[in-house]
Amino acid sequence: MDSHAPGAAASLQVAVGQHTEPGRKPVNQDFHGLCVPAEPLLGAKGVAIALADGISSSQVSHIASETAVASFLEDYYCTPETWSVKKSAHKVLSAANSWLHAQTRQRHHPDQPRDADRGYVCTMTVMVLKASTAHILHIGDARIYRLRAGIMEQLTDDHRVWISQDQSYLGRALGLAPHLEIDYHTQPLEAGDVFLLATDGVYEHIDAQDVARVIAAHPDALDAAARDLAQLALERGSTDNLTAQLVRIDALPPRRADELARYSLNLPCPPLLTAGMTFEGFRIQDELHASHRSHVYLAHDIDSGDAVVIKIPSLDLRHDPAYLERLLTEEWIARRIDSRHVVRAWPMPRARRSLYTVSEYLPGRTLTRWMVEHPRPTLDQAVTLIEQIARGLQAFHRLEIVHQDLRPDNVLIGDDGVARIIDLGSTQAAGLWDRAAPDDDAPAMLGTAQYAAPEYFLGEAGTPRSDLYSLAAMLYQMLSGRLPYGAEVARARSRAAQLRLNYVSVLDRDRELPAWIDGVLSRALHPDPALRTPELSEFTHALRHPPEAARRGERLPLLERNPLAFWKGLCLVQFTVILLLLLTR
Question: Which of 373, 384, 400, 479 could form a disulfide with 430 if both were Cys (CB 3.0 to 4.6 A apart)?
């Protein structure tokens, strides 16, 4: 049987084939099955493949094999979608084990020995393909192999205990004991991977060259390929039942966030790249940027000729799993966000062999460079850029993602005049990094201190209002050539210290700016996020509606307009009251 998972190109697509026969034995004690569901079940639970092998000493082992496979394929898809693959599969296999073990106990009469080798016992090997990860669960001595780039690798360990060179017995099996120990691990998938699930009657008589040759002979008929592998084993002297299942990965969806940690640990870091070098289908043109975090290169896709940007980990951080996970998360987030004002991830046409990210190349200059070239922009020029950056930020916030490191170096002004956010390395997606640190640890500040909102220096998590602060700080700098609180904000490590921060007017004698702009900026740059402008849209609206902004600025209480003046005034009032009380005594 050949089957393809339905759905668009963004869905997991597989081709499968399977075959079983008794071989030279009178009864086939193997049993196999698979399920390729339609969406949304395909995305929620994945493709399940199961293989069981009975033991020859038992007359009912074939019943155990059939029951184990059938119950798994039915019950797995009934588990809650909120359960992980591991939890769902463990629950189902444990239930099957308990049932089979109970049947063995009930089958024996008092005058019969309780011999597990004659009961409802079988091996069980399961593979669940979900998104771009293979989940492998294994009990016994059936095997799973992966054929990739001509190399066949065994992915399971045999649970067989050898007494001598010629004698052995199963150390683990389904139904053998009341408690079940299951091997579980995951493997990242790549398009073109071929998996072989086989019982010992097949795998003991074939090798990697046989598998590759048979699949090449039947590229569109994996059922025929599975049958030929069984026949080949039979011809080479196999005396056992013969079962083979083949699964080929034809297309993968974008990698999910919860898979990135596992994926990053399975990819080696590339070496530093140089101009003219060929790297995984790209030709490196030049190094664009280097820092303690990463190296960024301009390259061309050799097949398409398109210009791209490649980012690789720095030498300092390539042994930091948290950073490597974040690097791949950056690309995952870029694929999720659809905005003209955010850099786009490059669609990868080839399998990745090392850890790096690829994004579109946008000719232009950073906002830092633009400010050097335009030291005295008009208010309209500055607001036009800020509005575009705000639209990019809104695309993040709609997905509950905080950028956390908005600064001029991370904004590109394209040759087309469009402003785009180009670095997503410090983004915080809701729920994604909760496991990164213990609950009693303060969140690490990943952004740049000069533009970071004051709450970051208190160890608080970022919010959309934190991004708003950074955006307003960039506008303040474009209009005045300085930062709103200078270096003081980074030194203010307590709420009291932050309340003493004094907003300095953006207005000066050398530049013609309307007075109302101070009211808009002072509110957006308030040290307390609770008193800050609540929405990006409100901030950008105020920048284009000066009368309304001016009226709002006049209505702002002194605490919001000038916290330092408010507390000084309050202290003066308290001192006066105390002095009057002392004089009247």
Answer: 400
